[in-house]
Amino acid sequence: MLSRLSIQNYALIDSLDIRFDSGLNILTGETGAGKSIIMGGLSLILGQRVESRYFFNQHKKCIIEGYFDVSDYQLEPFFIEQDLDYEQETILRREISVDGKSRAFVNDTPVTLAVLKALAEKLIDIHSQHATLQLNTEAFQLLTLDSVAQSQHLRGRYTAAYQTYKTTQARLNQLKEEAQQTRAEADYHQFLYDELAKANLDADEQGLLEAEQQQLEHAEEIKRNLFGVVYALQEQELNALALLKEAVQQLQQAERYMAALAPQAERLQSSFIELKDLADEISRTEQGIVLDEARLAEVNERLSLLYTLQQKHRVDSVAELIALREELRGRLDALSSDEAEIGRLEKDVARLKAETLALAAELSALRQAAIPTVQDEVSRILHEVGMPQSRLHIVLSQVDADQIRSSGQDKAEFLFTANKGQNPQPIGKVASGGELSRLMLAIKSLIAKTSSLPTIIFDEIDTGISGEVALKVGNIMERLADRMQVIAITHLPQIASKGKTHFRVYKKESTDKTATSIVQLEQPERIQEIAQMLSGANPGEAALQHAAELLAN
């Protein structure tokens, strides 16, 4: 429950500190006194976004704190999941700086607005006069059935299964789309890969072939040149080897008489031997060179293939062609792998869909079983608040299996009539403002019986009602307060008189500013306040007596 609300520097509020009771708390005050401002401040610690920087003092930050007793509501798992310190008195705080930046805290730990809102939804339900619009939403109608059916745990399991199913289905669709695109290119990629694979590429081949091509194309010239070398060295009449041999003999002859010439003689002899070996080797090379037209054609054809492939793929080397071949093989392998993954995911999606539909069927059965209870209880409460001929009719139908949603397979429609002899119609078409308020109160009362929500706030839902009906609405709020904390903002004395604790919101005027303030009323002050609500600013004795009777009852 909300035990304390502190608001500093917000709108017309300089500083407020409100301590609420565990039962029915009433807030009254003239129109424009600031009751809605208090609710606006409270909404900020419930996760609502800051829409303006309307500060009482534009040079100070705004701070709003809510103190909640959460000891009886099994919220420890939420705190553990969000890595927050669990305290039986938990403090939600919101700070808005003068530059409009906002920060949120839970027990002094900074949190995101999403976390703050998620926690607040477990603590407070604010029902304003505009909340009757929820009645027309399918989400609220299903929530009503789930609350009465006590199917929250099953719905949680369904939601988890549904999310897993949709995530897997989205992955499957994405993979199919990618595979379809890849498959459209697969034939072309396969052709390119086969062409490169058939070429039996070798990174070093091109250089070797180009060298061989040079030799084959100039074989005749090479052979002629080599023959010229051999002829000069040993074939012509006055050849190099013959001259060198004669020089060796002359030097050896001189060595006989001059021993110091031995090294030169030995070197010259070695040169003769080396030159003779070289001449023989060149001669053998020359004899081995032939003009092989067939081989030249083969080399030219191979090089032409390599050059064509490089030009086709816009690369400069065989190594790059090999890299491209491997890339194409990877794409083709990936397509094959994707096909296998698609097959696996199709089986997973089918299984998950079956599991989700099974949970949806269980959920539908519980909702269907809860319909009579909702219809009967709402009709009973509406009869109590002056609508004896009203009737709520709930239609639950199912969408196709392929159209299941996060809420299940059900479509809910609440049909309503307030008058005898009229067929129930969609709520928004047949109910007035006062009827909508009472219908929403009846549904909220029913939900409260099965909900562990600590606090419910009724913000001026008394629109369109008065007199005896207002008194009966007050009785319902009073009964609600036996099970949960109720905070009601009202203009009706019949409802205000039911409160266990009564606050009056008012404006204080100073020389330069107007400020909203609040005071808790004691019994004599409550009589005066309710009398004023009955008859105006200066209530007479009859109004005071009537106010006292309302409080006594």
UniProtKB/TrEMBL annotation:
This is DNA repair protein RecN. InterPro entries: DNA_recomb/repair_RecN (IPR004604), P-loop_NTPase (IPR027417), RecF/RecN/SMC_N (IPR003395). One of its GO terms (cellular component) is bacterial nucleoid. The keyword Cell membrane does not apply. GO terms for biological process: DNA recombination; DNA repair; SOS response. The keyword Plastid does not apply. Keywords: ATP-binding, Coiled coil, DNA damage, DNA repair, Nucleotide-binding. Residues 1-510 form the RecF/RecN/SMC N-terminal domain. Pfam families: SMC_N. The lineage of its organism: Bacteria, Pseudomonadati, Bacteroidota, Sphingobacteriia, Sphingobacteriales. GO terms for molecular function: ATP binding. Residues 158-185, 318-362 form a coiled coil. May be involved in recombinational repair of damaged DNA. Belongs to the RecN family.
